[in-house]
Amino acid sequence: MKETSISNKGRSGLGKFLIKYNTYIMLLVLIIICTSISTDFFTADNWINIGRQYSGTIIVCMGMLFVILTGGIDLSVGSIQALGSVMVAWVLTTQGWSMPLAILIPLAFGFGLGMVTGLLTAYAKMAPFIASLAMMTIARGLAFMISNGQPVATPENSIGQLGVGAVGGVLPYLVLLAAVVVVIFALLQRYTSFGRIVIAIGSNETAVRLAGISVKKQKMAVYAISGLCAALSGIIAASRTAIGTPIIGEGLELDAIAACVIGGASLAGGEGSCIKTVVGVLVLALISNIMNLLSVPSYPQDVIKGLIIIGSVLLQSFTAGRKEQSV
């Protein structure tokens, strides 16, 4: 009996460990697979390239995470990214305005569009899915209107310096920017009343409302922040490619949601981690890397992402069930 009890405890302990650190274990397994497939994978240059390529996605995921923490969802991030990239290129090329102004204008638009989504969700009682779907269409339409459906090239020696530059010739500006954004969001989530309220809304919105806190204002704020992050990622995209294009960002909302869920965020709200979300982005990046190394077309990659989301949600449901049984 005693040996059986110890054995059960051991299995239980291993199960808890695997559930708690599943995101990190998944990343480690993918790193091992990538390293075995390509000897060039585990090099500084490759990781720097991954950092550059996914810096914008990481920033979008920070905004998406806060929306998900409230129990909402934002489908407009890809379209707002496209609008941000087109707008920064258009302002620099056709208007000839200064760099700071060219950056501030798309950020303001992204913030404003996100705020409208928040207003529709919080005050008009529109479902987050419908409100953000409508904003997705509006933002994409604006991107095509501004660019006339064509890519807009950025002037030489302008925003492109952000995309190719590096601190000391080693640490890319984009990676540093993404790291700063992650730190800011992690501090917001853990050490500010705003972060605690956002989590509380997702856990028990009624209790937050009864405590006298304006749930509507908090929800509007997280959607505005998500729009801001999406616009910033658009500026980053324009800096990397030296063009603003209205067709980028298609499927970005799926990647952002997938990264958050892989990182342990609950789509029901109230649970999520900034650091684990970054790990979720890296998991998606390495899956894409493996698929490319194996010459797998893009469409099966989308299928795999969808299956990963399903698996992550099922794991969360299983974990929640285990917690309820232990109470």
TrEMBL record:
Localization annotation: Cell membrane
Topology versus the membrane: Multi-pass membrane protein
An MF annotation (GO) of this entry: transmembrane transporter activity
Superkingdom of the organism of origin: Bacteria
GO CC entries: plasma membrane
Residues that span the membrane, as ranges: 21-42, 54-73, 103-122, 166-188, 220-239, 277-297, 303-321
Major place of residence: membrane
Keyword tags: Cell inner membrane, Cell membrane, Membrane, Transmembrane, Transmembrane helix, Transport
Highest classification ranks of the organism: Bacteria, Bacillati, Bacillota, Clostridia, Christensenellales
InterPro entries: ABC_transp_permease
Protein source organism: Christensenella massiliensis
Name of one Pfam family that matches: BPD_transp_2
Signal peptide (residue range): none
Full protein name: ABC transporter permease
